[in-house]
Specification:
- 2 copies of one chain form a homodimer.
- Chain A is an alpha/beta fold.
- Chain A has 11 helices and 15 strands.
- In chain A, helix 7 packs parallel to helix 9.
- The longest helix of chain A has 24 residues.
- The model of chain A has no long low-confidence stretch (mean pLDDT 95).
- Chains A and B meet through strand 13, helix 5, helix 8 and helix 9 of A and strand 13, helix 5, helix 8 and helix 9 of B.
């Protein structure tokens, strides 16, 4: 089977590229650290064509892109679609990069223009489109990461969403706050079966997402109870994940169906454990597969490849 | 009137020293950046005698010290007093530094050895002792700062306390998180009458101290609503102070009397405004005066100066 489309998830620091057939099957894959920060220097077209050539893509192969490459600081701004919005309409709003030898389009991000809860996403809308949500019903989707997104989907449309900077808070507090003394210079990966993870997750859940009152307690537990650095990292992780889940649950309720957890790698286990502690049923969708499926769907919505068989 | 005692608030990065008469009146004052980090290199005795000589203190003048100089990393560890504990007993537990030409004592810090809320303080216990609390009744004391402390006092004893790292979160998030793009390189001091301060304070109060769900919204408000950097700093400050107050109020209730706000400088105005938004009555005690009064009280409890007239 020959490639129908090249698909890119082009973020701030990283890029992933695939050649896909028209059913979304992976024919070739590239990963690079030439996210938009690097690409702004080298040129987006140069970076893209380099990856395409390395995968042996024909010169006329169309390209569909999602992520921060479509931001104001990226290749070409793909203006935000304002929610509420049907997921199909978001994908169909991809904009074409002018002056290129091939058909290159960038999927827009989403904006929630609420005075009391402004929010934006870029990239996660494509994961969402590829997460295989039923066309009907109310569904709650959790996409963990540096900036975790929770999305309420109603009958195939994004009703609202929110961002919890859980991954970023962990990194920043571990490196720059007083907790660096507790976690040590190179915190080990947190194990979901560390009892401190579960305990501090419960603690945050028990107070509805109040995280800030418990941060210093991790430091104090080191001074008073000889808490070790790996366990301190588990405390911080459990506290932040528990806080995120408590807060999102309060905002969106639990949904009609299990939470759809769109995630890859180590975070899958941690978020699965935390959702379990919170008593929330969930089903897991692989985030890499979801973004590829979403990109294929976007290519289809924009007529870059044929309709699904 | 001649000096009765030299009193020092000796923290991690700063030191303040006074010569006081036996009523606590200030006869001389010194401020230095030779906190324990510097003093560990120069020698605590050398640093202390330098400041005392500069203030013209006699060689036999006794010295009372509070703060991080009494920590394990300080001059001499003054072991924590475990709460609940009467404030007078805390002060009376000051330990004497051996091998010195004069009587030098360090006030112990406090430890809350609860499995689910471990906490420590050093220095604030002395402010608390000098805050002029009535001997009877239940009082809630707020001591804002890098690590804000809230203390529940019952009939002159510390019943419990907690730490909210509000000042540290502001600094760390402003410098190292995605919010640095929103606040700019040198965030201006936040004005308490900035409407964003009040609005985001209300927002955190409305959700019981859930701060983490609203951090990214400050960034999004910059992208979507052209929020300016000074206003973004006001949002972050309001959010963190509102979150602290909501959380402390839930933990300790409101007390029989107005909250006792022990604070100096710009924070006095911000916390006063935030307590107002929260609908909490308060009275303000100057933190500098409180720590001096507490040190005099500690000197008295340890028989270093005569009983109060």
């Amino acid at each position: 089977m020959s490639a129908a489309v090249a698909a890119l998830d082009w973020g701030t620091t990283r890029l992933r590229a695939w050649l896909l057939d028209d059913a979304g099957k992976v024919l070739a894959e590239r990963r690079g650290d030439d996210g938009l920060i690097t690409a702004r220097e080298k040129g987006f077209s140069t970076v893209l064509e380099g990856h395409l050539a390395a995968m042996g893509a024909p010169e006329t192969l169309p390209v569909i892109i999602c992520g921060m490459a479509g931001s104001r600081q990226g290749w070409l701004e793909a203006p935000y679609v304002t929610v509420p919005a049907p997921i199909g309409a978001i994908l169909a709003g991809a904009i074409r990069v002018p002056g290129q030898g091939r058909d290159i389009r960038i999927v827009p991000g989403l904006a929630q223009r609420l005075a009391d809860a402004p929010d934006v996403m870029r990239g996660e809308e494509t994961q969402l489109a590829g997460a295989g949500l039923p066309a009907k019903g109310r569904h709650l989707v959790c996409m963990p990461g540096t900036h975790s997104k929770w999305v309420a989907v109603e009958d195939g449309a994004v009703a609202g969403f929110g961002t919890w900077p859980t991954g970023e808070l962990f990194s920043v507090l571990a490196a720059h706050s007083i907790l660096r003394h507790s976690l040590g210079e190179h915190p080990a990966a947190v194990a979901a079966d560390n009892p401190f993870f579960r305990q501090w997750c419960e603690r945050a859940l028990g107070e509805g997402g109040d995280v800030t009152s418990k941060l210093f307690a991790i430091r104090a537990a080191g001074l008073l109870h000889d808490l070790q650095s790996d366990d301190a990292a588990a405390c911080l992780s459990g506290l932040l994940l528990g806080g995120e889940i408590a807060s999102a649950k309060r905002r969106y309720g639990a949904g009609d169906e299990p939470v759809v957890l769109v995630v890859s790698g180590a975070l899958a286990v941690l978020y699965g454990a935390a959702l379990g502690v919170a008593g929330l049923a969930f089903r897991t969708v692989d985030a890499d597969e979801a973004v590829r499926a979403g990109l294929v769907e976007a290519a289809r919505e924009n007529g870059m490849i044929g309709a699904a068989a």
